[in-house]
Design a protein that fits this description.
With about 140 residues, the protein is mainly alpha-helical. It has four helices and no strands. α2 runs antiparallel to α3. The chain is elongated, with a radius of gyration of 16 Å. The chain binds fe (ii) ion.
């Protein structure tokens, strides 16, 4: 079973987002553990919903933070970062459908690998901080 091990290298230096990232990793591991333990789809879907209840507002916060980026590099970053969010949501929705239809759950955990892309999203946040700083849009750092 592949879970995500929290690493302080994931810290981006913004305490609120860092705290949410830490909670996300714990919630993802709960989803993966519940699936691996053979829990019914309803249980696994409920845990995914709990995770998304944190993830969606988190993504919205980041989107709002990136809105004022105006330099070419900042705009390019925002485009990549938003595409990463959209792709993640697309894959989560596909996974939810697979679990609901019984195509994915306790036997084949491949679909849950979508969660393993979360460190990439956190890496994207790290780049975001750099772009916000470059354009002097970060007031607390
Ligand atoms: Fe994030």
């Amino acid at each position: 079973m592949h879970t995500i091990q929290w690493s302080d290298t994931y810290l981006i230096g913004l305490p609120d987002l860092d705290a949410e990232h830490r909670r996300m990793v714990a919630m993802i591991n709960a989803v993966i553990a519940a699936a691996a333990d053979g829990n019914p789809p309803k249980t696994v879907l409920g845990l995914i919903d709990d995770f998304m209840a944190l993830m969606l507002p988190h993504m919205k916060t980041e989107q709002e933070m990136m809105e004022p980026l105006a330099m070419p590099q900042g705009i390019a970053h925002r485009r990549r970062h938003l595409a990463g969010h959209a792709e993640f949501i697309r894959r989560i929705n596909a996974l939810r459908a697979d679990i609901a239809d019984g195509r994915e759950c306790n036997s084949d955990l491949d679909g849950l690998g979508v969660f393993l892309t979360v460190p990439e999203l956190i890496n994207s946040d790290y780049e975001m901080v750099g772009e916000l700083r470059r354009e002097r849009l970060l007031h607390n750092g």
